[in-house]
Amino acid sequence: xxxxxxxxxxxxxxxxxxxxxxxxxxxxxxxxxxxxxxxxxxxxxxxxxxxxxxxxxxxxxxxxxxxxxxxxxxxxxxxxxxxxxxxxxxxxxxxxxxxxxxxxxxxxxxxxxxxxxxxxxxxxxxxxxxxxxxxxxxxxxxxxxxxxxxxxxxxxxxxxxxxxxxxxxxxxxxxxxxxxxxxxxxxxxxxxxxxxxxxxxxxxxxxxxxxxxxxxxxxxxxxxxxxxxxxxxxxxxxxxxxxxxxxxxxxxxxxxxxxxxxxxxxxxxxxxxxxxxxxxxxxxxxxxxxxxxxxxxxxxxxxxxxxxxxxxxxxxxxxxxxxxxxxxxxxxxxxxxxxxxxxxxxxxxxxxxxxxxxxx
Length: 360
Fold this sequence. Notes:
This protein is α/β, with parallel strands linked by helices.
């Protein structure tokens, strides 16, 4: 799992996969899927073995996900396993991709290789599913995994009554947000946030200046996105998609296209997620205000939440909260979470969990 995690933010929409080759109880080679389009974990492990002049015949390979058996950007990993005469393969999870889905294991067994699959009910299998939750969701639904993120004060405000929101959390917490942006394929905000803050919505990591930027998606029914905004001015370097309704002005559509902005006409958030999935956007970070957050929650589209809490009190009945709208009437209808985690970033606290009140 630790090996597989090294590919985070670089392999989407492929899964995170790690592989180790073991002989006589010792690891003799290892590899992981490092970047989309590059060698898969198994072939990287064999490359490592070849560089060490390790004979893999009869050895055991442990791999976190079922080896692929089809041609994509890379040839099938099952072929490499068979060619290197591996004696046994231990698989962490079956791959639900219809192109694999047990066929990889079948090919290995037909070649005389012993294959063991981790018990699906085991704690380790649960950890592996959590590690690859984005891939598993996307490959089975063809819709992106939706992560909601917000920062609020201890009294639940995302800005003061005058609209001041810079900065609620400290540097360490904001750095964590940029790490999150790197790991997800898209980022969504509403036009209200753009007009108020003129955000860049890019990934800015001091130690990783070339970190991947998410595709920037603005919910903008009437296409009010300013042509001099940071988003539009950088649209040719980092993609921007303005999502509008059918009544949007054609002249605004033409102006945005001329500036390098893509436009999508979507009738609902559900329609938008289907469009994202078709465009290979496997995951999206929602960094909207309370209205956008409420819209995603009401549509039951949120899979995961990152809530940063700063030890500050600002008060104000008119100060905005992370989720606006009408809210629920009964507590039994509240969104609930599994796998809740708590992290500290200086004085700020991060509460992070997967939504458990819906299928994911």
